[in-house]
């Protein structure tokens, strides 16, 4: 196929995350190969100059065009990756260069759609492209994005979010999920499925699937909430109420709810359900246990309650989830 119909521009700059830059081109390249009677993609890396760019991984990449050269072309898709720094306490912070933000704003104005990969959402936010929208980013910098831009509805859970002509993706390997979704939007899910098969991955994870496991969330700064979280994990198969947790923490019910809101940005009930869903996901992936057994050991009580929780949080049934993600096999 010789026709090029969709120019994809990936923003390149010093310290950019390597996979954010190299992942999407692989998806678009395979889409071009798999397509039959459709315009393909032309993917270019654009930077301030034609000098080599050193990524955060230390690998150097050469740009294809400068930003000035790109502004003279019609852009179908602008992809904005990100970069981070680690402070002395090993905390991750997204970097936002004002000059780069202006370039992103300018290029986005010439693009049919704009997508951020991982912490690239911080650049879109600084450019005003996420104002009044719901957006996601890597879970580790989601609090930073929410604090810096209260006008954005930051949701750290989904793999990616589409709001009109602006897409935001979660961290690291989710760039592949986002790129597959862009291909499916352009050329249909049948072609995107063929690309996914070439990548040996699913076309899409269940909508709303969390980008991280509950036990791996950031540690709370207070010992009391950490003790509560471990208490919940140890007793997840039992009936857990606000009253029980408050008594364990030696606080009032009202104070307990306030602690969860302040420290974990959720309610006790919602947090308990998220832990139960996480445990159920692990059981579905790694065991042959029946849904009745899983509902029992995870504290749901009934299969109906288990199914409702999965639909609410993952937009998939437990059976659908097991079919997609099961790692064990019976002999």
Q: What does this protein look like?
A:
The structure is a single chain. The protein is of the alpha/beta class. The chain is 44% helix and 16% strand. The protein has 14 helices and 13 strands. The chain has helices at 18-34, 67-70, 98-108, 121-126, 142-148, 174-187, 189-198, 223-234, 242-249, 253-264, 268-286, 291-297, 303-314, 318-325; strands at 4-11, 40-47, 53-54, 60-61, 65-66, 75-80, 84-86, 92-94, 111-116, 134-135, 153-154, 160-163, 166-169. The protein has a seven-stranded mixed beta sheet, with helices on both faces. Strands 3-4 form a two-stranded antiparallel sheet. Strands 7-8 form a two-stranded antiparallel sheet. The protein starts with a strand and ends in a 6-residue tail after the last helix.
Number of strands: 13
What is the element string, with H for helices and E for strands? EHEEEEHEEEHEHEHEEEHHHHHHHHH
What is the 3D form? globular
> Structural class of the secondary elements?
alpha/beta
Low-confidence stretches: 215-221
Give the N-to-C terminal Cα separation. 45 Å
Alpha-carbon Rg, integer: 22 Å
Strand order of the largest sheet: 5-2-1-6-9-13-12
The biggest sheet, with number of strands, parallel, antiparallel or mixed sense and barrel status, is: 7 strands, mixed
Q: Estimate what percentage of residues fall within beta strands.
A: 15-25%
Fraction of residues in helix: 40-55%
